[in-house]
Amino acid sequence: MERETNTEAPETANLALLVERIRAGDSAAETELYTAYSRGVFLIATVRTRDSEAARDLTQDVFVAVLGSVRAGQLRDAEKLPAFVQGTARNLINNFLRSRARRAECDLPDAELRGGDLVDDLELAERQRLVRRELESFEPLDRKLLVWSVLEGHSLADVARRLNLSHEAVRARKSRLVKKIAEKLAGLSHKRHQ
Length: 194
Hints:
This protein is mainly alpha-helical. The protein has helices at 12-23, 27-49, 52-71, 81-105, 110-114, 118-137, 140-151, 156-163, 167-193. The protein folds into 2 domains: 12-102, Rna Polymerase Sigma Factor, Chain: A, CATH 1.10.1740; 115-193, Arc Repressor Mutant, subunit A, CATH 1.10.10.10.
């Protein structure tokens, strides 16, 4: 019986072989790794950054880092390759988001302040104020849930474990909270265009 070609992540038995081939410099193995995991990394990066160009760059950065680590023998257990890719992605995305937030907080020279669309800048500031105010109105549990899942990028399973709640309860709560914030922001946009 002929086996179907699987475009998903490699099976556990094949992970050790894939890692060994990458360590040996096999470019086809590197392509297999990228093909197996790049779509998932790109989707996560797109959702977290809300910027498809940044997500593309981050996806490339993740695989450069993963391949470098695998080649250097830093991955001790080949079965943990999927978790290693995910952890590397989470770290690089979080670093990107932190550096973007720091850049947004720094003072701009007067020449840069004169440029740009003042209305857009004011609307962005109002949205940020609304989101902060909305977060402050949430219960501490809900604030933790949003910070851990949206800002820090932890999986819902990890958040559920930390909060001692079921995965389904965390998913439903997060969905409700994000919808509530989105409705507030949509209201702001609607008022502006009236």
